[in-house]
From TrEMBL:
Any GO BP annotation: vesicle-mediated transport
GO MF annotation: an example: GTPase activity
Recorded topology in the membrane: Lipid-anchor
Family the entry assigns: Belongs to the small GTPase superfamily. Rab family.
InterPro entries named in the record: P-loop_NTPase, Rab, Small_GTP-bd, Small_GTPase
Protein name: Ras-related protein Rab-36
Gene3D superfamilies the record matches: P-loop containing nucleotide triphosphate hydrolases
Biological function: The small GTPases Rab are key regulators of intracellular membrane trafficking, from the formation of transport vesicles to their fusion with membranes. Rabs cycle between an inactive GDP-bound form and an active GTP-bound form that is able to recruit to membranes different sets of downstream effectors directly responsible for vesicle formation, movement, tethering and fusion.
UniProt keywords, alphabetically: Golgi apparatus, GTP-binding, Hydrolase, Lipoprotein, Magnesium, Membrane, Metal-binding, Nucleotide-binding, Prenylation, Protein transport, Transport
Gene Ontology CC terms: Golgi membrane
Domain of life: Eukaryota
């Protein structure tokens, strides 16, 4: 791709979606890595424009969890900067896409917001396939929704058998509804569950916007890093300066086409 093409792709990214620093985890006790910076190989490869020119970096995140825990609200807060206090059930699946620029490299995060209602599971599960990231959402003000986390992860794993390892997040929402003392107790349990699931724990509020941006930046950065590292490992005998030559990073494994509109699909 010509240099102007590269710059026009970069130009599409909103200044609010630029990542230059490795985002921190929410809490040390339940994080998926123990690092405080991007892998040096990532910085090195991203400083070479050639990887940006050819490689297409896209990751798919599915957002799953019990009914009404706040999945749509979390995505809408980040993507549309909006919060709706009225509940409208997700019917089937909803789709959003966000473009980031991470270490000067364009990166696209697809977000598949799925229905929590049992009767829509037949549709929703079809969209789990090809996921790289799984965000299991629960309601911090309703501990029963945390108990379902294992079941949700198993459902996601079932649809992705034989594919690469999933990057898993356990996200407690509606933090604004929970008193600090209660929150501490819920957090202890959530951290335990997160460790069992090899997930990274986050607590957010779509209503107040607490930690929402930090969460999505962390998701984007970790998945971006995993993607580039996998590509580098695949091409370990190729000089870093040549990575990206003539090859696109292929990340969409069997993605079904995006639904045409929000909250309108049904069995
Ligand atoms: N106070 C508060 N309410 C929230 C928050 N997030 C979501 N809600 C409310 O919780 C209800 C359900 O939110 P949704 O985002 O629609 O839940 P969902 O998980 O997408 O629902 P389904 O997809 O149908 O399973 C709505 O009334 C939201 O306004 C939050 O952070 N704080």
């Amino acid at each position: 791709m010509a240099e102007s093409g590269y710059h026009s792709r970069i130009a599409q990214v909103h200044s609010d979606r630029v990542v230059t620093k490795f985002p921190e985890a929410f809490c040390k006790a339940a994080r998926v890595d123990q690092k405080y910076d991007f892998d040096p190989r990532i910085r090195q490869s991203c400083s070479s424009e050639r990887i940006n020119n050819v490689s297409l970096k896209i990751c798919k995140m599915i957002i799953i969890g019990d009914v009404s825990v706040g999945k749509t609200s979390l995505v809408n807060r980040f993507c549309k900067k909006a919060f709706d206090k009225d509940y409208k059930a997700t019917i089937g699946v909803d789709f959003e896409v966000e473009r980031f620029e991470i270490l000067n490299t364009p990166f696209t995060l697809q977000m598949w917001d799925t229905a929590g209602q049992e009767r829509f599971q037949c549709i929703a599960a079809a969209y789990y396939r090809g996921a790289h990231i799984v965000s299991i959402v629960f309601d911090l003000s309703d501990i029963n929704t945390l108990a379902s986390a294992t079941k949700w992860l198993e459902a996601a794993q079932k649809e992705n058998k034989g594919a690469g390892e999933l990057l898993v997040f356990l996200v407690g929402t509606k933090k604004d509804l929970v008193a600090p003392q209660t929150y501490k107790e819920v957090e202890k349990e959530a951290i335990q569950v997160a460790r069992q699931l090899n997930a990274e724990y986050w607590a957010v509020s779509a209503k107040t916007n607490e930690k929402v941006r930090d969460f999505f930046f962390r998701v984007a950065s970790l998945s971006f890093e995993g993607t580039v590292l996998r590509e580098l490992e695949k091409r370990q005998f190729t000089p870093v300066s040549q990575i990206g030559d003539g090859v696109s990073i292929q990340l969409n494994r069997n993605n079904p086409p995006p639904p045409r509109s929000s909250k309108t699909q049904c069995c």
